[in-house]
Specification:
This protein is an alpha/beta fold. Helices cover 36% and strands 15% of the residues. The radius of gyration is 21 Å and the shape is globular. Bound molecules: pyridoxal-5'-phosphate.
Length: 381
Amino acid sequence: MTEHGFETLLVHAGQEPDELTGSVVPPIHLATTYAQQKVGEHKGFEYSRSGNPTRAVLEKVVSTLEGAPAGFAFASGLAAEDAVLRFCRPGDHVVIPNDAYGGTYRLIARVHGGYGLEFTPVDLGDVSAVEAAIGQRTRLIWSETPSNPHLRIADIAALAELAHRSSARLVVDNTFATPYLQRPLSLGADVVVHSMTKYLGGHSDVVGGFVATSDAEVAERTAFLQNATGAVPSPFDCYMVLRGLKTLAVRLDRQCANASAISTFLAEHSAVAAVLYPGLDSHPGHGIAKAQMSQFGAMVSFILRGGEEAALEVAASTELFTLAESLGAVESLIEHPARMTHLSVAGSALEVDPGLLRLSVGVETLEDLLGDLERALEKVG
Ligand SMILES: *Cc1c(COP(=O)(O)O)cnc(C)c1O
């Protein structure tokens, strides 16, 4: 189906009407086990952890969207990341972003670190710093672009080249951009990971993760680990992501347009010291973002002149922007990373400015969102 446009793929890829019934949406297959005609002879499914038809549809769809020959669904974004990190052995090394998602940092530092994985946090926007951090046992360059919560941009093609020069692999956490805005494998990355909990699901009602890869060895190992460690999503959760995915493009078009207008409004507001949004000319990664993304995403971070006190006041004052963790769904959210999503990196190289707020911009009427922010900012202006 690759000759079709992306929006068509979202609705149709891997989702031909059910052969048996004609159902236009994929059935939720709850069976845990499948009848075999003879020992070892079956219709492709034996046991639901090893393979499930609803999950197989989701895996086909997300792999197609990422342009990947293989893809594997997991119970959460972190479960997907854990499978990729298990490529490393004790003493191996990974380069990680100095503003990785807090849970990614915790997984690397406090789980895999405990089994001897070495890591170096680096500003991935600085290609020579990444080069300097690569050693003989570097297996992975782990990247997130745009990053969380600083919305820093990493040059995927440049990092892929660096990784391949030293026989490491480039992993891109594509959660913030989604394959609608950015396709890392086409830029040379080896592995894409997702928290499907965010934009792919898109409605704050399902937790899931994904690994897509163009590397046959990674695919074989991930398939093995998905079954061997068993962190698989339920058939219902797979269905929920499939349902959300169909509107990914229309949701993101509106969300990106809202975010862009909000970033301009904030940049002009006297209570705001800085706006971090890759769509702004002033953003250091703007040029690369423009080259590797089709739009700039719907996450906006900003730093209050009044520091932490002002940030906490604004976070508590908005009404349409719900104060909550997570991101990527149709409703707008606001959060304070230093005390919420990024509490686990306090005191590390990844610590976040306590005056920073992060917005996940939804699909609501723009004027309503701007009015909500205006009223909240008045309190600290
Ligand atoms: C949420 C998130 C994760 C973790 O995903 P879960 O589904 O919560 O396990 C990883 N990376 C990024 C960028 C995220 O936003």
